[in-house]
Structure formats: C-alpha cells, structure tokens
Amino acid sequence: MFRRRVPVKIAAATAAMATMTKSAVEVRLLRDLGQPVDEVAGSDWKKMAANHAEEVRFDAPSMALMREKAPSFEARMLANLKRTVAEDTLRNEYDLHLRIHQWFANSPYPVTFEALNQRVYAELFLTPATDPWLGLLQDEAFSAVARGGVVTGTK
C-alpha cells in the first residue's frame, strides 16, 4: 500500500509539462489564459527526442485519419507530431516508467490498482483527483466574474 500524501495544489501549466503529447495542445491554451509555462525543464528531453523522431511511425489508417481531421495536414505537421511522440515515449520509458518501478520496489505491501492509479495521476501527471479543476482554478488569480466564474450545483 502506498503512503497517503497530503494533496498539493498544482498549476495546470506544471501538469501540462508532465505529459508532452497533451502539453502540445495545453501549453498554447494556458499561455493564452495568461498562465506562465516553464519549458526549460523540457529542453533536454527535446534534444534527446530530436535524435529519435524519425523512428516514430504511424500506420496507414492513422495517417488517413490525420489527413481527414486536418485537411491542411502537411510534412511540417507530421514532423512536429513525430518529435512530440518521440519525446513523450522517452519520458515514459526513462522517467515515468522508472518512477513507477521504484514505487513498487520501495513499497513493503502489495499495491492495489486504485492506489497506483491515484498516485500516477497525482504525482506523475500532476492532476490529483482532489483538484477537480486540474490546476486551472487559481486562488491567487483575479477574476472580475463573481466567484471566479465557478458555478456549482444547478442554480
């Protein structure tokens, strides 16, 4: 069983950088929302991924779907996607995968799927179940909208 950790509020920008495939979309949105995004930590991963981008392959049905969904799909878009997938793969294999194995090795008890799943989302993806806003609702951010625009319930 994993030790329970005290929930920590994580900024969406920090969580976005934990998974590169998602962050390719999320970082632009977060910048538009005025949230700072630190990409310096990812620069080493980007450099390593550049050496592996050409190894990324997509099957014919995937390529057809991409062309259907993005009619302006072009070689530059494919190259960017390959770099992102290569970076995500490297992070998964050499960082996230390693940390999960360390959790198992350091746990004195068998680990349940539920406990592992909660820990993966809370500590690796930085999107704990305790934060329904996934870091997008910041206490210190000013909003001119009543209650920060948060609507709860049916009223």
Tags for this model:
52% helix; 6 helices; single chain; extended; mainly alpha; 155 residues
Task: Describe the model.
- With 155 residues, the protein is an all-alpha fold.
- It has one domain (12-133).
- Helix content is 52%, strand content 0%.
- It has helices at residues 12-16, 20-32, 43-50, 60-69, 75-106, 113-124.
- α3 (43-50) crosses α5.
- The N and C termini lie far apart (41 Å).
State the helix count.
Answer: 6
CA gyration radius, whole angstroms: 19 Å
The total beta strand count reads 0
Low-confidence stretches: none
> What proportion of the residues form beta strands (DSSP E)?
under 5%
Number of domains: 1
Secondary-structure element string = HHHHHH
**Largest beta-sheet details:** none
The overall pLDDT, averaged over residues, is 80
Task: Give the topology.
Layout: H1 12-16, H2 20-32, H3 43-50, H4 60-69, H5 75-106, H6 113-124
Could you write a compact summary of the structure shown?
By secondary structure, the chain is mostly helical. The protein has 6 helices and no strands. Helix content is 52%, strand content 0%.
